[in-house]
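Hi team,

Filling in the usual template for the complex we talked about on Friday. All components are listed, including any nucleic acid strands or ligand strings, so the model treats them as one assembly.

SUBMITTER: L.P.
PURPOSE: interface mapping
COMPONENTS: two
RESIDUES: 642
SEQUENCES:
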Amino acid sequence: MNPYFDPERYPTLSEDGARMLKFLREHPQAPIYRNTSGNRLTHKDLEQLTTFERKLNQSRVDWDANSSPGWLNAFAEQVYREVPFYRAQGIAPRFTDITPVSRADYSRDIAAFVPDNAPIDRMINFRTTGTSGNPLLIASHPRVAATYLCFHRQALRRFGIELTPGPQQVGVVLVGHQRRCFTYVSVTPQLGESGLAKINLHPDDWHNPDDRAAYLDALNPEIYTGDPLSFSELKNLPLRTKPRTLISVGMMLSDGLKAELEDHFNAPVLDIYSLNEAGPVGLFDANLGGHLLLQPELYVEILDPQGHPVAAGERGEITLTGGFNFCLPLLRYRTGDYASMTYSAEGPLLTGLSGRTPVRFRTQTGEWINNIDITHALRPLPLAQFGLHQSADGTLTLSLASASLHHATTSTQALQTIFGNQPIAINTIAAEDKILQYTSDLEGGTLQ
Amino acid sequence: MNKSGPELQRLTRRLAETPADFLDEPLIQGRGRVAVAALVHDALRRVGYRPSSEELQRFVGQNANQDRNRLQLVALAVWLLDEDWFNTATLEGPAVMALFDQALQQLAEANQANKYVNDSERREEFARYLLARLDYRPAGESAAQATDRLSALSSTERKRLLQESREAERRARAIREALAKKAADESADKWTRE
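RESULT (copied from the run log):
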């Protein structure tokens, strides 16, 4: 029997889909796949996904600075009825009186945030290490994982791209570049079983490093998804084929690297603000100057440290309510990411998005500089990843990913426009993971 | 107890005034006078719920020793739900069905039906218990006050809360185990990984 027929991982797999799996996994230049996964989608799931996507395509984010979503109060009441953590608190108070929760609350006991009716037998998890020191298992479901594609397709449409369905096409390659990475192959039933490969570009995962380009050329995927670090590595491969687009998630994508990638691949790069807890939240639109919100049923607030909403245009913590993960409905969930909210004719926008707690840096003249100014100063440079730290004695250290070390001089020059002739040490980011982008040991440096 | 209900005295007074007919012998195996299944049917239809014949079968007693007290309590609940206030409320059919079917079974294990009519504390317990199962609390009380008062009065409620808390802990443990399983760790396809 064909080993690819696995009713748990691929409940609806066809002969053509099995051939695609075999091609992806057994290609002579294929990497060493270290894991197995699967779409785990049943026919019923696929019907529900079709209904969800149809509804999504007919709706839009319909709230603004002066109004909240029509579904908000009913949703909060439902969460207070069906989610143990909230039920223990009694009746739902007024929405703005609901105490926000954070990653630390989820970390303590994620089970308390799973609704009574979430099916345990098909529960899956997504593990997130994050940068806040609270590792977390997010409760999820195969249909929730597959829902990401509905939002990606919506985002791609803004760039005039419709994906090609069919088992002769590799739809997506998820690219990582880490010492250890979860790798596998699959097919996407929503796209007629087009191929999916999650690979690691790190040479240790390949029989021969030259196989990387040969394999990816053989796959010729329509889309690469990854983060700025993995795309920086992908760009160095001598690929003959070009994707139709790249989707960047998980880390801040600088304007410089975005431009470099778009030039190199001759394809648009979609910068999506996405997090394990909520999926794709916003798509960066350069013309609008921010991340346009993607989910009509996700309410986004910007809160101050006391948990009060700030005025439109003011910076604060991105806080989420709603979402499509029925195993983890969000209710005023503080993401740890910061932005301000503005409103365009196309919908609400997150502007000046930056990860984690805002940090101030002190110049030699005693002036405090907001981390957003550092972001602006370094934005034109194609940095895959960076972090800036100020020690208690005021000294500055700029950390760069090894792929970006050759930009060390231009980076320090860019920072000198802010810090004058203050020396800036350069450090290499050793861990191949997210880091806290801005940190300070100075008193008053952290704004919380 | 998310919704504000009627004044408690309206209900306890109605219980004290229960016609003797309602506490008459329920029809079991051809003996008795009160056809509880018919009462249940009519009460459910009033809230827009059409019970199946299998559901109604629960209210046709099979064994006088086991079913008599429970069926008398169901008849008592039907009488109480006929209080004018409930005609203005929007009752959920499945919640009323669950009250008749499961919740009153628990109450029947604690006391005889006539006690819930003749004893003032038990009347209060019955009224509060019925309201709570329908997600109501007495008028003028907060949810916390109503919860405290009911659990102080009712050993059935205390047992139910304990059971609920055990079940919640069992489910939480099952979720933690499901998430910790390797199969869960191997996850499912997303087009992007954050």
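MY TAKE: The mean pLDDT of chain B is 92. The first helix of chain B runs from residue 8 to 16.

Thanks, L.
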